Amino acid sequence: MSRFAQPGSELAGQADSSATEVTRPSPLWLRVGFWACILIAVAAVIRRTFALLSPPHSAPQQMAALDNWFGSHAALTLAHILPALLFVLIAPFFVVRKSNQTAWQEYALFPLGLVVGITAYAMSAYSVGGWIERSAVLVFGTLFLYSLSRAYLYLRRGELLQKRRWILRAIAILLGVAVTRPVMGMFFATSPLTHLQPSQFFGIAFWIGFLTSTLVGEFWLRRTSL
After folding, report:
1. How many C-alpha atoms does 138 have within 13 Å on its Cβ side?
2. Is the pLDDT of residue 14 over 90?
3. Which pLDDT tens digit goes with each residue over 109-167?
4. Three-state secondary structure call for residue 25
5. Alpha-carbon span 74 to 154, nearest angstrom
6. Distance between CA atoms of residues 41 and 49, nearest Å
7. pTM
8. Fewer CB in a 10 Å sphere around the end CB: N or C, the chain?
9. Any idea where the domains of the chain sit in the sequence?
10. For 39-65, b where at least 16 C-beta lie within 10 A, e where not — what string?
11. Rounded to 5 degrees, what are φ and ψ at 6?
12. E-assigned strands of the chain?
């Protein structure tokens, strides 16, 4: 993530009400990873949307089965992925901002995040990966909504630095959906050898992806003493 606050020791007691932050560049690997996740998430939503609106006729068997599965829940899928797309597109404007002051990004991220979280719960009833995938959605979906709730409470209290911390946590969790994509890609690529089907590896991919993004986000937040 691009820039984070590092409050001076003499201002520690006033950090939450400060309009500006002392910032330092985040490491290159984190910035590359963040933007890669944004691009992957956007590409995944665009691909899924086109597949729902105009199903491909020459997709590989496993991909065609997934397209049919999502197509059978098209309305719910769109209600989930389109708000998620907007959330992901707005998130960079929040991350790169140098001020803790409340701006338009929060007013968009809070309602979008609520819709994304609720529809994720609804979609878990039809999980491709069964209870393993469902458990990942329930755990990390709850953490996502909890982070947004904490951020909103801190916003109401005027504790702006804490608000920023918790929104960044929510963004890190949501980007786990992008991390799952290359993990799923590896499972798809090795399926001729492993003979694993999406119903068998989707849940594992979800746990790996969301756990990775959540831990990386938390590590950076703690490392920078935000």
Report:
1. 10
2. no
3. 999 999 999 999 999 988 888 999 999 999 999 999 999 999 999 999 999 999 999 99
4. strand
5. 36
6. 12
7. 0.83
8. C
9. 17-223
10. ebbeebbeebbebbeeeeeeeeeeeee
11. -140, 85
12. 3-5, 23-25
